[in-house]
Amino acid sequence: MNLQHTPKAKGLFTLALGASLVVSATLAFGQAKPLAGQTVKIMWIDPLTGLMGPVGTNQLKTQQFLAERFSATNPAGVKFEVIGVDNKLSPTESLNALKSAIDQGIRYVIQGNGSSVAVPLIDAINKHNERNPGKEVLFLNEAAVDPDLTNSKCSFWHFRFDADTTMKMEAITTFMKDQPDIKKVYLLNQNYSHGQQVARYAKEDLARKRPDIQIVGEDLHPLAQVRDFAPYIAKIKASGADTVITGNWGSDLSLLVKAANEGGYTGRFFTYYTGVTGTPTALGTSGAGKVYQVAYAHYNMGGAMDVYMKDFKAKYNDDLYTGAVIRQFEYLGAAMAKAKSTDPVKVALAMEGMKLKSAFGGETEMRKTDHQLQQQLYIAVWQKADAKFPYSPENTGMTMVPVAEYPPYVSSTPTSCQMVRPAGS
Questions:
Q1: Calpha distance 220→191 (Å, rounded)
Q2: Distance between CA atoms of 46 and 86, rounded to whole angstroms?
Q3: Is residue 139 domain-shared with residue 184, that is, in the same domain?
Q4: Is pTM, for the whole model, over 0.85?
Q5: 14-54, pLDDT tens digit by residue?
Q6: Residue 299 vs residues 15, 66, 195, 318, 350: alpha-carbon distances, Å
Q7: Tally of structural domains, the chain
């Protein structure tokens, strides 16, 4: 769906959209704006400097843009305020930021760029909440996708709005199994928990679904440190791989595809983060038809997502691609309205098990067992933008076109979570 609006018409549509969300939430919870006038402060902890700084900068703008939008429309009537802190992709800096949030009385934190940061944050929040009843902090995860975060390391205080590595790999390999020309696969990933998990589950899922596919090479490289991927591309070409699977993000993906273009590699890439800052520009037109992405959204969703993206681009001349933030605010507002409270314990209890029809992608559910959002996933391919799929990230003239769509039950994966819950819950 391609919405064409004059500025005035677009504004009217946005207001109508907000009103419809409020009405639907009011019908669901029986009372409009029970917390009108209250401000909920949220600390966002992610990189704003270094090689991954551009990704973090985009996501902080996304958080603050959507906080303003949802402050006007959420069914609880609260005002959301997002305060950004640069963690330099460092666990130590992140723990210092968490301490600062606690000292300021901030009881909600957001993080997503790096499961290597998410794990120590969850551990610290667990300890703080156990020792400080009445001052609990809730962790909203927008993008850290290590499956352990909702399995062995699951926490009542952690909610993930992205789909985890196993869910996305289920979708990728379900698509790949029906592509007979895929015969040799190379695994290239960042050397930390997420990248290691991508490699592990790619091997397991392909062995189950397409045992004829050969894994002809595997590399793990340092996170956010490699500036020249040409040696890796040379190894991939030498292996005879017709396909690469990578969970790389940020500079580690944009520099990888740049090296592939310059090195003349013509095989396919299956990625998690093609749409993230810098990668569309690095791809240009050379990746057309051969770079795929698995995600819970794509650039041409239509409806409310289309409005958010167009308004964001008009304001920042940048692309809104972290749709998990929309769902984060959808769930926070609905849970606060249901709980009639901004207290993190009451909000968490209201949010787990909740089902919502999202602004994009249909109905979602925050699974109570492990606090992993269950949601639709899409496989999209990089190609030239056209009348049907018009949105062009980074003004490249290209876009992501959906080629497969998987309802939640297809990509949903089991959990081993043994959650420790608050007394009496």
A1: 5
A2: 6
A3: no
A4: yes
A5: 333 443 443 344 444 445 689 998 999 999 999 999 999 99
A6: 22, 17, 24, 13, 31
A7: 2
